[in-house]
Amino acid sequence: MSLLRDEELAAAFDHASRAYDALVAANPGYHAHLRRSVRRLGLSGHGAGLRVLDLGCGTGASTAALRSVLPAAEVTAVDASVGMLRRAAAKPWADGVRFVRAPAERLAEAGVSGPFDAVFAAYLFRNVGDPDAVLGSVRALLRPGGRLGVHEYTLSGRRADRAVWTLVSRGLVRPVASLLGDGPLYRHLWRSVVEFDTAEAFTRRLRVAGFDRVRALPLPGWQTGITHTFVACRPHRAGEGQR
Ligand SMILES: C[S@@+](CC[C@H](N)C(=O)[O-])C[C@H]1O[C@@H](n2cnc3c(N)ncnc32)[C@H](O)[C@@H]1O
Predict the structure, then answer these.
(1) Mind listing the GO biological process terms from this record (predicted)?
(2) What does the chain look like in DSSP terms, one character per residue?
(3) Binding site membership of 127 for ligand 1 (Cβ less than 6 Å)
(4) pLDDT in tens, 120-132
(5) Can you give the pTM of this predicted structure?
């Protein structure tokens, strides 16, 4: 099976949206880890006066993490799947959150424009066909000095971590997902992780895309060596980066 992309992937997420919240609730630490990644952006003042973009917001788990850590920030939450987005938008949100349906590759067409003080993308980058192009657009949407937070399955490169990922995916997640009719999406999930960048490779990718102050930070629990938070900045002056 090849990886799902674009409309095919959005359709798979549309279908999976019905059970998505229940599945992630069964994943220990899912929401706490998202909040930890948001805190790692290091934004102060509860986000007052800040504009934040949640790219690939899904059913709103990452949006909720942003609102929890940065309750005063204005959040624009974007997703390509109408099913995921509908569930996100149906939740009770305080003022300052708006949802936009758009692929990450075509934000301007959907009226999403910067500058943003921060962009957060949780479990998105493995899913896009051209991560470098999306990183380039994200960089352009950030104000100089603006922060990028990426929360992503990125293996350490150690065989043991890949083995744990395969065990969790094949032994736990896929059997449940198959019963729900979401087998193809969760086969894509396993494969997209083993074929995507290691944490070290994604760090390099961020530097090459022109971000600086790039750091890869591990997450605790079973996800150590499997999931990382990446934090990076758009340089203040053109031509800076590669650090
Ligand atoms: C695994 S979910 C994560 C959702 C949410 N960020 C969270 O932390 O729970 C990935 C989301 O990215 C969206 N997505 C995948 N590729 C996309 C793209 N190219 N443009 C916009 N959204 C995309 C999917 O529709 C899905 O809702």
Answers:
(1) methylation
(2) -PPP-HHHHHHHHHHHHHHHHHHHHTSTTHHHHHHHHHHTT---GGGTT-EEEEET-TTTHHHHHHHHH-TTSEEEEEES-HHHHHHHHTS---SSEEEEE--GGGTGGGT----EEEEEEES-GGG-S-HHHHHHHHHHHEEEEEEEEEEEE---S-HHHHHHHHHHIIIIIHHHHHHTT-HHHHHHHHHHHHHS--HHHHHHHHHHTT-EEEEEEE-SGGGTTTEEEEEEE--SSTT----
(3) yes
(4) 999 999 999 999 9
(5) 0.97
